[in-house]
Inverse folding.
């Protein structure tokens, strides 16, 4: 038996995105803005991680009790901010992934007919 191979976009009219052609550019701009925000949050998280590492190293070398107390407070401040930003980053990643998923184009699937 020969096989008949055809291609389909795998999407029926009920599952297509509700974004109209005129709204696509606005939707794309919105996603790009959110991605820019995400990049900014990620850079802040990296900065905070660097500051925590640097402060921890300085704390190991500190001998003056006043300096130790100060560095402990700074370390606490950075870790609290990192925890706060991490929570915000997780939520933004989930939101952006959902937005991007609604923008994906249907994949063309191969259908084999026997």
């Amino acid at each position: 038996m020969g096989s008949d191979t055809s291609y389909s976009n795998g999407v029926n009219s009920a599952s297509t995105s509700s974004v109209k052609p005129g709204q696509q550019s606005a939707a794309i701009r919105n996603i790009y803005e959110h991605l820019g925000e995400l990049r900014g949050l990620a850079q802040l998280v990296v900065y905070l991680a660097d500051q925590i590492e640097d402060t921890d190293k300085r704390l190991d070398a500190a001998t003056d009790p006043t300096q130790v107390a100060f560095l402990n407070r700074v370390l606490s401040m950075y870790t609290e901010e990192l925890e706060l930003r991490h929570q915000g980053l997780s939520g933004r990643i989930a939101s952006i992934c959902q937005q991007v998923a609604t923008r994906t184009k249907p994949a063309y699937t191969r259908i084999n007919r026997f």
Observations:
- Confidence is low (pLDDT under 50) at residues 1-17.
- Residues 20-104 form a domain with the Helix Hairpins fold (CATH 1.10.287).
- The chain is about 70% helix and 10% strand.
